[in-house]
């Protein structure tokens, strides 16, 4: 185990404790379905694109881990994730609101009995080398949809352009509006050039995953 991975593992253990504290409220999926009016305008439209900090498809969040959604919203609320729109939305939510939305989206669109392959299709040798460099599967799972801790995201099948923007954001420093303050992912992302991050994002988007866009029947 190299020095970087040892340091990252220690930070990961610490972050699990923090993320566990962040979601003390028990989520109610039915309540969350009544609170997602600010979510569906972007995440409930297939192909919807954001324009800040660049044009990219907004992430699919239906089927995502509830603990990850809660952790992400708390990070926006605390300013650890610097996105003006998401910061404003997260600021408007109580801890109970966040827990309810997380519970709702964690079950939204999931098909009972559906199983993903244990491992995705083999990547090219070049991409495999990039995956090995940060040992991505050690946290996100062998098929990138079963992370070792539910506060880590499922990334298999996520939009490539979103993954690319998200990965780049971990490398941003001293920008009041862009960036993500996660020491673990910052250490990982900085090992790669942006061209390499784009290769990783393209591959990860191609594998089977549980994430999807579930269109809203009507806006409220």
Give the helices and strands, then pairings.
Elements: H1 3-22, H2 29-33, H3 37-43, E1 49-50, E2 56-57, H4 66-78, H5 84-91, H6 95-107, H7 125-134, H8 137-140, H9 160-169, H10 183-189, H11 194-206
Antiparallel strand pairs: 1-2
Give an overview in words:
- By secondary structure, the protein is mainly alpha-helical.
- The protein has one domain: Cytochrome Bc1 Complex, Chain D, domain 2, CATH 1.10.760.10.
- 50% of the residues lie in helices and 2% in strands.
- It is built from eleven helices and two strands; from the N terminus they run αααββαααααααα.
- Strands 1-2 form a two-stranded antiparallel sheet.
- β1 and β2 (56-57) form a beta hairpin.
- The longest helix has 20 residues, at 3-22.
- It is globular and about 45 Å long.
Key structural traits:
two-stranded antiparallel sheet; disordered N terminus; mainly alpha; single chain; 220 residues; globular; 11 helices; Cytochrome Bc1 Complex, Chain D, domain 2; 50% helix
Summarize the structure.
The chain is 50% helix and 2% strand. The chain has 220 residues and is mostly helical.
